[in-house]
Amino acid sequence: MTNDGNNPSLDDKQYSPNVRVNRQETLLKGFDPEGIDYDYTTAEKIGMLPETMGGNKNHMGSVAPVTPEIYEQYKKHGLPSGESYILLKGASHPTHEYAVKGEAERGFEIKKYGDRYFSVPKQTQSIESILNFIDEKQIIPKFNLTPEQEKAFAGTQYGKIEDKTPLKQSILARILTGDQSAGKITPMQQKWADWVQSQLPQQ
Q1: I need a surface site. Which of 64, 68, 127, 179 has the fewest CB within 10 A?
Q2: Taking the CB of residue 159, how many other CB atoms lie within 10 A of it?
Q3: pLDDT of 164-175, one tens digit each?
C-alpha cells in the first residue's frame, strides 16, 4: 500500500502478513470507533510503529497522544484541554478491555467525545463542586446557549426561570466534567470552560 497523499506512508512490510491484510481493509472502508478494527491512519500519522521485541512484539499501542489537530476537531464535543489520548482500538476490538484497564491503572478513564473514544484524566471534581466554585467566585458566563441546549433543559429547573445564567453555569460544569448532557458546545463555551479550568484549585 503506497501513500496517495491521504493515507499513511508506513510500508506494509513492517507488519505481519495478517495485520497487513487487516490494515488494507481498514484503510479502504475507514475506521469504525465502535467496530473491531485498529486506527492505523492515526497511529501512523504520529509515527507509531509495531513493537519489535518482548511480549508485545508486532503489536502497536492502544492509545495515541491527542495532537493539536485532533483537539481542534473534538473540543467542540467537550474534549478537555490538557493531557489526553485518542483510542486506536474500536470499542468491539478483542483487546479493548485491556486498553480500558491499562488506562485506569495510570489514572485515566475512557470517555466518548463526538464519534471517538478518548482517554482523559479521571475526573476528581463533580458538577456540584464546580458549581459551588463558580457560585463562590460569582462567575457569570458571557456566552450564548445553543437552541439544542435550551431545548434539552427546558423541562428542568433551568427551563422554568427566565434568567439563563444558572443554566450557563451548569453547562460550564458539565463541560469540565466531560458530562455529555452539555451537548455540542460552541467555541466560546469552550473558551470559558478552559478559563474556569485554569482558575480551579489544584487537587
Answers
A1: 68
A2: 13
A3: 999 999 999 999
